[in-house]
Amino acid sequence: IVLVTGVQTCALPISRTLDAIRQSRQFLIHVLSATQSGANVAHGFTKGNSTDVFANQQFAVWNVGSKYPLPLLSSPGVTKVLRCKLRDKGDGAGLIEVGDHILVLADVESIIEPPPTKDAAALEDRGLAYLDRAYREVGKVIDVIDTEENEELER
User: Fold this and answer.
1) For residue range 39-96, what is the model confidence (pLDDT) as tens digits?
2) Tell me: the pLDDT tens digits for 86-97?
3) How far is CA 149 from CA 43, 47, 152, 154, in A?
């Protein structure tokens, strides 16, 4: 959820992503387009704490920063990138336990234009949504074909 003064997101307490956010106190949020390319990028992150999530063929990965490099995705499906810094003030200093999740509160420090791609013309102004187990844009579902799941079904 993007707020005017900052952002909030949730993570499981045992998460490589949360560990990286705790260590670096910063992260990137990639705003995805409501297109097939945007849905493909999102779907690449549905496998949990997979060690090869950044080996996905739907995007290239650049590193931003020096001490704690942040993964910046390059894909026709990425429209903007929000560079966020974990809040330092208040209870939990930006990390608040909510049930079995951790709420991450951060301030948006800058908006980054994603690296150019050869198919940049495919970008849309509408953001990608996920509801009822489907990627969506306003008014329609965007189907994703998962090649890994299809290969498992064929075996």
Assistant:
1) 988 888 877 666 677 776 667 788 776 666 888 888 888 988 999 999 887 655 788 8
2) 988 765 578 888
3) 12, 11, 5, 9
The first and second tokens of residue 17, run together, are 């992503």
Q: What is the pTM of this model?
A: 0.74
How would you classify residue 8: left for phi > 0, otherwise alpha for psi between -120 and 50, otherwise beta? beta
Residue 25 in 3-state DSSP?
Answer: coil
Residue indicated by tokens 């939990």: 92
- DSSP reduced 3-state for 42: helix
Is residue 100 classed exposed, middle or buried when 0-12, 13-18 and 19+ CB atoms within 10 A define those classes?
Answer: exposed
Tokens, residue 20: 């990286």
Q: What is the dihedral of CA 128, 31, 76, 118, to 10 degrees?
A: 160
In the block, which residue shows the tokens 């970008």? 123
DSSP 82-145: EEEEE--SSGGGGEEEETTEEEEEEEEEEEEPPPP-TTGGG--SSBPEEETTEEEETTEEE---
Asked if residues 112 and 28 have their Cβ atoms less than 8 Å apart, the reply is: yes
Task: For strands 70-74 and 140-142, give the pairing.
Answer: unpaired
